[in-house]
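Example record for the data management plan.
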Amino acid sequence: MRGIPVPDDIRERITTCIDPVRVSGWLDRAETVERAEDLFTDTPEAPEAV
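Corresponding structural encoding:
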């Protein structure tokens, strides 16, 4: 909605996440980040897909 480009790898990470708390945090940060990659600045790397 903000017009920020979302690379395919970032889009996949978001759409395959099954942790609602993590997704909620990303949504909160989405209001202020300048790049899609910045959503994950304090999120540990871990497999999230089923």
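Summary line stored alongside the record: The radius of gyration is 10 Å.
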